[in-house]
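Could you please consider the sequence and fold appended to this message?
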Amino acid sequence: MKALQGVEGQVVWADEPSPACDVGQVRIRVAAAGLNRADLLQKAGLYPPPPGASQVLGLECAGVISEVGPGSSWQVGDRVCALLAGGGMAEEVVVDGRHVLPVPEGLSLAEAAALPEVYSTAWLNLFQLAALKPGEKVLLHAGASGVGSAAIQLCKAFGNPCWVSVGSTERLAYCEALGAQGGVVRTDGLE
């Protein structure tokens, strides 16, 4: 299979062995992959993958399941997105079925590829680490970022009013359209 690797500041389209699909895993024929800061840092040689993780770029992807390992409840042909330890920028990827989500109705595979990393990060920080309870208020820095946008929508869905800090009035309007109560432009008053 072909895959993108970040090697010494270059992106290389290289041949990679096709990984085996084991117990509880699924093989996804990748249609789209998200591009994250970690991918850019890995390409620059500043963020090596952890030992044992794929050298192939891509922490999230979306596509269609082409093979199902024993013990997985997924079906061949399911449209899914997945959170990965790497390897999403390839023709196919094998991942634990527990790291796979169905593509939400109405979203393209390209749109769904951008969901797993930001929503997982927002969920972890808001509801697992901070143990946010319904009605509690939230201040989100970088509200217009991918994680910030996901956090705004999660706050809205779970009954948590949120405010944001952003870099421009356009970004503030974007955050308010997503559900933020309001916010501040971080450069206002800093002449």
Notes: The longest strand covers residues 25-33. The beta strands are 2-7, 10-15, 25-33, 60-68, 79-83, 92-96, 100-102, 138-141, 162-166, 182-185.
